[in-house]
């Protein structure tokens, strides 16, 4: 077997295409957009490089020169851990332990040479909401920017010595004809009856002009301390700008207290139901296909991206009230979405798991994020629980 570092345009193309060949007979695998993967490894499209991040990629060939595996390793200075921790990801391999271990050995050796003391994987070279975790249960079609892999990958990661750092759950529930936990309804009604609270979705000019500011305000209070970073208004505006081609105002919902934003949930149509038809390319043909399917065969599933309530309004029933009030709108027969999937809920976030359970949602998919400590005698610790 022969390792080749990805350094040329031909290598970069092969890094994408080998996965396409590997999964060609898997009906539930959806080809990611090529640009979404390749863009992560270039300073022009990934600003992490400007902050000192590093990355390397390798291809693995057999004796006949056929590509049988790939892997990437990276160092993200924004990852704040007890020990310097790098990442390994975009791992793909034939069902061969020797090949799999050689790829992981290669990533490990480079990370050690860069002063890392541990590696997490399989993870993304960027934010946690994309390409993060190993699928271990629920091998149906993946949601947008979520990984799909062969079941045998789990054995290779665990036999190599990776240990479970945390689980990521995707919850699912029907949009219509399913009730809620009775205690949740009681808490919700008490808040809904309070005239200081109001609940509404955002539409028209307010969606682009005001919603980013609302989002930034709530996010920085509700999530920043857990996620390790706050966001600036410009970042929030950029996020809403990127969502504009696919956004549905019926899926952006906010809670206000005396006119000030205190909660939200942001959802989008599950666009992998469209992207699966474009074969990874958003060239002219891909864009035409995207518009065709978006217009005539739109998604019937919505994807929950982020949910948050500012700390001073948590535990009062605001979460429940926001969901119950939204359900009254989405329960209309004209509402086109049949199911909702709530993506990326870590098992270190029991509060959010309880919210999903009160929604009578069930776990639909499970991903694992693993950690490998280079010092094998060092005590292993799982991800801390959010309070």
TrEMBL record:
InterPro entries: Acyl_CoA_acyltransferase, BcerS-like. This is GNAT family N-acetyltransferase. It comes from Algoriphagus lacus.
